[in-house]
Amino acid sequence: MVNRAARVFWGVLAAVVVLSVLTEFGRAVSGANVLVPAEDPGAGTRVVRFWSYFTIQSNVLVLLSVLPLVRDRQHDGRWWRPLRLTALLGIVVTGLVYAVVLAPTLHPTGLGAVTNAGLHYVAPPLTLLGWLLFGPRPRVTWATVGWAMVWPLAWIGYTLAHGAVSGWYPYPFLDVGQLGYAAALRNTGFVAVLALVLLSLFRLLDRRLPVTGPR
């Protein structure tokens, strides 16, 4: 019964992520999410920017990490463990930062509101809830924690480099053009500290919560 419930749960989460990401990607390609036509950067740039968002990348990582769980809820693997923890970290940060920082300033409508809900309000809590309920545990070591920081740090480096070249930043709290490097780096520092705190918490819970299968 637990095996079936877990596989159905992960299947639903995977479906939500696929539908949300692909729908929003279609909107980006078509230009449906361009609010001011005069500021449209072109299809190629829209695609690059779409895949540059932390939100999109974290949702894709969630999809890659839960697909094996649809087949086997006790899935394990040397490279899957850091992928799983990275996805969990990324999507929880996505949900928290959006709810606290971005949501008060953004008001999507129509189909955009639906995909926004899937990416920011459905995928994050479902991913965390699924991990708490079904694990699999234990899977988190300090080495796994270290590897889980690689992608967030790489994303920060890419974002700052891309912004320095293009002048575009995916989130206002990273906009060097508006804030300056000092404020932008301070904000990224806050996010990095949040990530370390969450990773430490995840490791603690991974060790304290009931074991869900073979070690």
TrEMBL record:
- In terms of domain of life, where is this protein from? Bacteria
Q: Where are the transmembrane segments?
A: 50-70, 82-101, 113-134, 141-161, 181-205
UniProt key word Membrane: yes
Q: What keywords is this UniProt entry annotated with?
A: Membrane, Transmembrane, Transmembrane helix
Ion transport as UniProt keyword: no
Q: Which InterPro entries match?
A: Pr6Pr-like
Annotated protein name in UniProt: Pr6Pr family membrane protein
